[in-house]
Design a protein that fits this description.
With 267 residues, the chain is α/β, with parallel strands linked by helices.
Length: 267
């Protein structure tokens, strides 16, 4: 038996390990002894007990930006997805801004196939974004089928590739009435699927699942987040429209939490 050491690079993260090889009938058996991760962004080596263990799906909106600050000590990587929504170009720069500010690695993954094969008013080329409250029936047109499931699946694969144990998303209680892949039932089912389908048993953490958006804004206020550096409006114009479901919800949440709303609205 011989023992060797190597460093593996997975994207922008790397880790070192030692392995032992045993040759038996021309077959090699590798025994991995994972030692430590290196996060180049911080230029430091972390032991397993100290290592950041999570990936966050970060849109650049109110909820995921709050979770970024709330869980910053655990987040090794934040991922934004450019899936062809009408507001991706407005929100992703804010996601990048906050990650740079906190010193957290950020990447953007394109999912351009969604605009080709999925139907939703939220996507480029779709029908007009409806106006009104999320409780209104017409808001269902903004659902992108299984969007969270697709993004989470990619994040779980990246987590396992980098030895990370958790994927986080910032769904909340107000999402439940309209988005099937934001419900507690979905969170539980996906968590079980991710753990069962990975060697390192990746788990989904969704700490805001049973909170309101007002609760989240209240938490962000305590964290000192400047919400003018986030984006919500589904229309993706130069300013928030103030009339679509997510703009209405943004206004209500800030009012409930006592957050000064410095958002520029077109209305």
């Amino acid at each position: 038996m011989s023992e060797k050491g190597e460093r593996i690079f997975c994207g922008s993260l790397s880790f070192s390990f030692s392995y032992a090889t045993t040759i038996n009938e021309n077959k090699k058996r590798f025994v991995l002894r994972f030692a430590r991760f290196t996060l180049p962004l911080h230029n430091q080596t972390l032991s397993e007990s100290e290592m950041k263990d999570s990936i966050l799906i970060l849109s650049g909106g109110v909820d995921s930006t709050t979770l970024l600050y709330d869980e910053q000590e655990r987040i090794a990587l934040a991922i934004s997805f450019d899936y062809g929504s009408k507001h991706n170009a407005r929100e992703i720069p804010f996601a990048r801004l906050h990650c740079e500010r906190l010193g957290i690695k950020h990447i953007t993954i394109p999912l351009d196939f969604m605009t080709k094969y999925f139907v939703s008013s939220l996507l480029e080329g779709g029908e007009e974004i409806p106006e009104g409250h999320y409780a209104d029936e017409n808001m269902k047109s903004t659902v992108v089928p299984f969007r969270n499931g697709i993004m989470l699946s990619i994040a779980v694969g990246i987590a396992e590739s980098n030895g990370l144990k958790y994927v986080m998303m910032a769904n909340h209680g107000g999402d439940h009435t309209i988005y099937p892949d934001c419900t507690p039932e979905f969170v539980d089912a996906f968590d079980q699927a991710a753990a069962s389908g990975t060697f390192v048993n990746v788990h989904l953490r969704s700490p805001y699942t049973n909170m309101t958006k007002g609760d989240i804004a209240r938490r962000g206020k305590a964290l000192g987040i400047d919400y003018s550096e986030t984006w919500s409006c589904y229309k993706g114009g130069n300013h928030h429209c103030g009339k679509c479901g997510t703009c209405v919800e943004r206004k209500e949440a800030f009012a409930e939490a006592g957050v000064e709303d410095r958002t520029v609205y077109e209305e």
